[in-house]
Write a structure and sequence with these properties.
49% strand, 6-stranded mixed β-sheet, STM4215-like, 6 strands
Amino acid sequence: MSIETGIVAHLQADGTVSGLVGTRIYPMQIPQEATLPALAYQVISGRPTYSHGGDSGPEWCRVQITCHAGTYEAVKALAAAVRAALSGAAGAMDDVTVQGTFVENDRDGWGGTFELAVVRMDVVVWYE
């Protein structure tokens, strides 16, 4: 499995997040016909960790989560739920062992497929 499937499984297992989006968590972009609220995710950078002997174990990646909802208040509530689910999360996420997740930043935006307010969040994930 991949870190992406692990994060999706973790978000779907969180009662607050799944209560808001159900299974509407999509790679890269939310489809135009999707019901809102919904999430999209993508890995925007990452790399393995090296020592003098080569690859030394855990990798890290930066995952961007994009939240869309029908109103500004709803998108902020969704972003707060995602933040709570991912901030400091560790352990098994699907078949991936996560050592830690750290919400690095989030920012409000406008546009995308729906021309609505969005929140984009960058999460750094250390995993094996």
